[in-house]
Design goal:
The complex is a heterotrimer of chains A (341), B (100) and C (168). In chain A, 66% of the residues lie in helices and 2% in strands. Chain A is built from eleven helices and two strands; from the N terminus they run αααββαααααααα. In chain A, strand 1 and strand 2 form a beta hairpin. The longest helix of chain B is centred in the last third of the chain and has 31 residues. The chains are: A mainly alpha (341), B mainly alpha (100), C mainly alpha (168). Chains B and C meet through helix 1, helix 2 and helix 3 of B and helix 1, helix 2, helix 3, helix 4 and helix 5 of C.
Chain lengths: 341, 100, 168
């Protein structure tokens, strides 16, 4: 009874709360880092050095007036932000935050549910998030959001193919679809998959940027382009949900990159006896550190690179990334067969 | 105790709902959606048999059915788009170009 | 007990969503309830220990095919043509009656043509996970259908592009 219901419930509450707090502070971190790159300070007024800025943002969004456009389809207009947010949150169910902790005498694993198709589950759930974007743009009953949402969803669907193909090459190297199994495979082989599959990592990072509508692929939602994209007509709490969903997606992409390419909760070179002292650091700290490094990479790229035009974006996705990912799979397969492993 | 018959009944009723959808709706897109319902009913049948006969062949077959459904949806929707450009309608009663 | 509850709950939801799909007035609502239907069917597959097919159902069916339908509905419905007009030539009751005949025929086949099943060949010698067994079968016994399916998808891709492009 306790094992079946109470512990997973506690895990879920913990993970969800943690994710929401991290997302709030990720917004602040983004503004701060962009500011420092641009030789200015960023939010400084609310709290010391702007630490309480997310609280102010949340309060503002809560008390904003809730406008629904006149001829908008009311049910779908309300449901669209939820349809974007829920898949992003439930993808956290299979991410292994660490190996396991012992609390109250029980061994609790730090992955809420380690299903044997974990990686595929994340891809499937990510593909459900596209619905919210299409419906959000359509239900606003207005030209610009509709066009922007069709563009955004076409972009998401295209880069999904490239990202899934990179997952295939990682699965070939690891031999299993379960996330914990992939981390264990990296432990057994002694190196992170970053060194085994560098091309896959690069393609995954580019695809991840496009999947989360981040710069330089954020044309569908940039304010200076299509009048703000598919969330033009949204305000207040519903807009906050779209925003939340985008940052949660960013954290998911970073966590998956950490698990697949950076060894998850393992320290560098996990099999070396000489580096065994690194295991004194708890596993979830390694995981968090690596995830934040990749998130920082996302923010850094946003502050640095200019935006891609839409046709350039689609050309890169279909004509460059997908052939590269396919070639990577072929090379991985050939090498595996030749080495007999 | 859930037996094979339960799953057979479920997939038959789902298939029946799909057939009603094909025969009574006039919007061609909803007709295609009802065809997807029928394919799902077949898939449920295959997976249920795979479970009860303890063989994975049913699941392999279901994967092929999903693949064929994807191909059919793509081509069917292409045809609908091409037709819509010419005649501006999705009402299947007005898709009677061969009738004079 | 858990399996019974799961089966009855999922079946009720699946059939309920299917009825809404075929009776929804607007195509977008029909598509949304179809997605919900597919998700519940995927849940049913998980109950039947077919995890790989369940995830593929969500990924390909709910997350790919139905998005295609949604795109076409948005491109085609931009003026929202009315479907709800009562058309004289429409014979819904005849349609339901014909479907009931199909149902009776299927029920007869299912209940009277029932042969005691014998277990088919399992997926190779591996018994680790569902994915491995399905993969084993797909790449050894059923390799030719697998390659043919990929060719079918290639042909469908080319066909869809050719059919839907504007005449240049």
């Amino acid at each position: 009874m306790i094992d079946l219901i109470v512990i997973p419930l506690l895990q879920i509450v913990f993970v969800l709360t943690g994710v929401l707090i991290v997302v709030m502070y990720l917004v602040l971190l983004e503004r701060k880092i962009q500011a420092w790159v641009q030789v200015r300070f960023g939010p400084m007024r609310v709290g010391p050095h702007g630490i309480l800025q997310p609280v102010a943002d949340v309060l503002k969004l809560f008390v904003k007036e809730d406008i629904t456009p006149v001829k908008a389809d009311k049910w779908i207009y309300t449901a669209a932000p939820i349809i974007v947010l829920v898949p992003a949150l439930i993808a956290f169910a299979v991410i292994p935050f660490g190996s396991s902790v012992s609390l109250f005498g029980k061994k609790i694993s730090l992955a809420i549910a380690d299903v044997n198709v974990g990686l595929l589950y994340i891809v499937a759930v990510a593909s459900l998030g596209v619905y919210g974007i299409i419906l959000g743009g359509w239900s606003s009953n207005s030209k610009y959001p509709l066009l922007a949402s069709l563009r955004a969803s076409a972009q998401l669907v295209s880069y999904e193919v490239a990202v899934t193909l990179t997952f295939v090459s990682v699965i070939l190297s690891a031999g299993t679809l379960s996330m914990v199994g992939i981390v264990n495979a990296q432990y057994n082989s002694g190196v992170w998959f970053l060194f085994v599959q560098p091309v896959a990592f690069v393609i995954y990072m580019i695809g991840g940027l496009a999947e989360t509508n981040r710069s330089p692929f954020d044309l569908p939602e940039a304010e200076s382009e299509l009048v703000g994209g598919f969330h033009t007509e949204y305000s207040g709490m519903r807009f906050a949900l779209f925003f939340l969903a985008e940052y949660t997606n960013m954290i998911i992409v970073s966590s998956v990159a950490t698990t697949l390419f950076f060894g998850g909760w393992l320290p560098p070179f996990p099999n070396l006896k000489a580096l065994a002292f690194l295991y004194y650091v708890p596993s979830w700290i390694w995981f968090t550190l690596k995830t934040f490094l990749i998130l920082y990479l996302f923010l850094w790229i946003r502050a640095t690179l200019p935006r891609y035009r839409y046709d350039q974006l689609m050309r890169v996705g279909w004509k460059v990334l997908i052939p590269l990912a396919l070639a990577n799979i072929v090379v991985t397969g050939v090498v595996k067969v030749l080495l007999g492993r | 105790m859930i037996t094979q018959t339960h799953y057979l009944v479920l997939s038959t009723v789902l298939f029946f709902i799909g057939v009603v959808g094909v025969m009574t709706r006039r919007n061609i897109i909803i007709i295609l959606l009802s065809i997807e319902l029928m394919l799902n009913a077949v898939n449920i049948n295959l997976i249920a048999f795979s479970y009860h006969l303890k063989s994975e062949i049913g699941q392999v077959f279901a994967l092929f059915v999903i693949c064929v459904a994807a191909a059919e949806a793509a081509v069917g929707l292409g045809i609908i788009l091409a037709f819509y450009r010419n005649k501006e309608t999705v009402n299947i009663d007005e898709m009677n170009l061969m009738r004079w | 007990m858990g399996e019974q509850l799961a089966f009855y709950a999922l079946s009720a939801l699946i059939l309920g969503c299917a009825v809404i799909v075929i009776t929804a007035p607007s195509a977008v609502y029909a598509i949304l309830f179809l997605v919900l239907d597919f998700l519940f069917v995927a849940g049913l597959y998980v109950v039947l220990h077919a995890q790989f097919v369940a995830v593929i159902q969500v990924l390909v069916y709910a997350g790919g095919i139905v998005i295609l339908y949604l795109f076409v509905v948005m491109l085609v419905n931009l003026k929202r043509p009315p479907e709800a007009q009562r058309d004289r030539r429409r014979r819904s009751r005849l349609g339901v009656a014909l479907s009931a005949v199909v149902l009776v025929e299927f029920a007869a086949i299912a209940l009277y043509g029932y042969v005691a099943p014998e277990a088919g060949p399992a997926g190779g010698g591996l018994s680790f996970s569902n994915v491995e067994r399905v993969g084993w079968l797909l790449y050894t016994d059923y390799l030719v259908p697998f390659e043919l399916a990929s060719m079918l998808l290639l042909v469908a891709m080319i066909g869809a592009i050719v059919l839907a492009r504007r005449e240049l």
